[in-house]
Give the backbone structure.
Amino acid sequence: MRSAFELADFPAVNPAFFTLDLPRGGTDGRSLEHIGSEVDNLEVSGRKLEAQGLTFDTPYTGLEDMNLTAPPASGGMGVYTGSVVTEQDTDPPEESLDDLRERAEGGDAEAQANLGYKYATGRDAPQDDAEALKWYRLAAEQGVADAQYLLALMYSLGRGVQQDYVQAHMWFNLAASRSAGARRESRVRVRDRTASRMTPDALNEAQRLAREWEAAHPR
């Protein structure tokens, strides 16, 4: 705080927050609802954070998808509207890498997902996208929704594997079907955004693969 004002620190910005005892006007549809900053390659940066287990309140939204008039300098970039990182998808338990690997190799789906997380983020393990992909896939094949979602992100970003929107959509679709509430809604939006980048044939293929996987893995 500075004097009676609460402050927030952002790069090159130091806003102050205080209360005025005055009538408030509406903000519906105005840019005040979408305070934020524009960053080159924001969608890619956001997806990398998601691949490390971070969850945003709302998914990436391009300016063309918002009911706002973009300023001339926007350059077609997008924003995470009103979004902050609210949680980490499964924080790995305090367990040695060797013990975790032993459980993962024994077929423990939770351990496989957590081991993938460690390799994806470089936490307590060497950062290795190929290893992360391997363990996420093993957990995803056992029906772990978070692992399915993170595997989809790896495919979407081309981390540890060639970028493949068909595989990304398939795993986003499966992850959404095994999620609930706000998490499901967020994953559906990410899945649908992926679909918008695909040809009709590619989308049909992704949906076919998801149906076949579901049929082979009854709940």
About this structure: Confidence is low (pLDDT under 50) at residues 1-6, 18-24, 26-36, 66-90. The first strand starts at residue 6 and ends at 7.
